[in-house]
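This section describes the prediction task in plain terms. A model, or a person checking by hand, is given the sequence of a single protein chain and must write out its three-dimensional structure as a string of tokens. No templates, partner chains or ligands are provided. The sample shown here is typical of the held-out split.
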Amino acid sequence: MPEDKKVAIKKINAAGPMKALMAAYFKELDEASRTGKRKVAWCTSVGPAELLRSFGFLVYFPENHGAMLGSTRMATELIPAANAIGYSPDICSYLTSDIGSFIQGKTPLQAMGIDRPPKPDVLVYNTSQCRDVQDWMYWYHRELGVPVLGIETHRGIHEITDAHVRSVSSQMEAMIEPLEKISGRKFDLGDLNEVLRISKETTLEWERILRAAEHVPSPITFFDGTIHMGPAVVLRGDQRATDYYRLLNAELEERIQNGVGAVDDERHRIYWEGMPIWGKLREHAELFAAHRGCVVCSTYCNSWIFKAFDPDDPFTSMARAYLEIFIIRDEMFKERYIADMVRTYQVNGVVFHDAKTCPNNSNNRYGMPERLNKLNIPNITIHADLNDLRCYSEEQGRTNIEAFMEQLGG
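The expected answer:
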């Protein structure tokens, strides 16, 4: 493949409305923070956002801000500010770049005319992803004097039991009393039922989008998914997210009907395992496309499919949905899951991203690549990081990906 060959990335028309929706979301948060007209809750990405919305909170997600810092390539220059106050360069670079952003007063939101992230009235976490989210929220607790509420989640789960579910659901129910005091509003089960109904619709529409990639050629790539997942992350329980995904699904269905693939002359179908390398999304999209490779699926984008949601049984179903996500499960489950995805999406090869600062979502570290080899599933490991580009060798990464694509047959 010639070094200078450039491949145009196909534009998704719905990207315009999505950008407007995300801008409106951040401006609502900014207005609430400046005026005090609405309460703001900060929540980790698999935290109880639906419960918070039922109390009338606007919900802000620091991990989404971390991804923005990575994709705008601001993270690498901000991380040292967190390192300087004792936060190791080996811990989550979402955390260190976000704290660095706060310390230095620099944020991608400034491009929207927003000076800083919204001031929280409460900080809420769920350790389903990792312990780092707890430490992250407690840093802001000490800095801002804001109350913290948390859920401690089981990890390394093989089969989800009723005991697991009761543990998480009871912790959510225990949040009701403090949230009533902070919000100034009594808990209303009907409000939670309605928020969860909308959230279930959103998650099913998002699943439809990701499953569109089962078609050959795929109308969407993993790299598209990392961008368009924004509403599924930050607007769960908001009707606007559901409406947006219906718009996007209509566009993808049109591509399928017309036989239009996201990658021209698609030949190889790839599974991306682990976190995105946020600052290299476009480069990687172009690199795979230049080799007629379409990254059709990932565990990352699927992390916001919560099919267990049941508006008629909110606490139990939310607990089960949060427990079902890939990152919490044991190695046996993960191996079976990946093998199933390879079959379902007709995948030719798997790319593992070993993210230096995200061990919990680097699934190559306990023998998974070798076990996939025994299942005749070709794979490669790329060493990098989600946000800290100092951990990524551009030349080595490109060489390894190109060699892998040639191994797959061109």
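For orientation: The radius of gyration is 21 Å.
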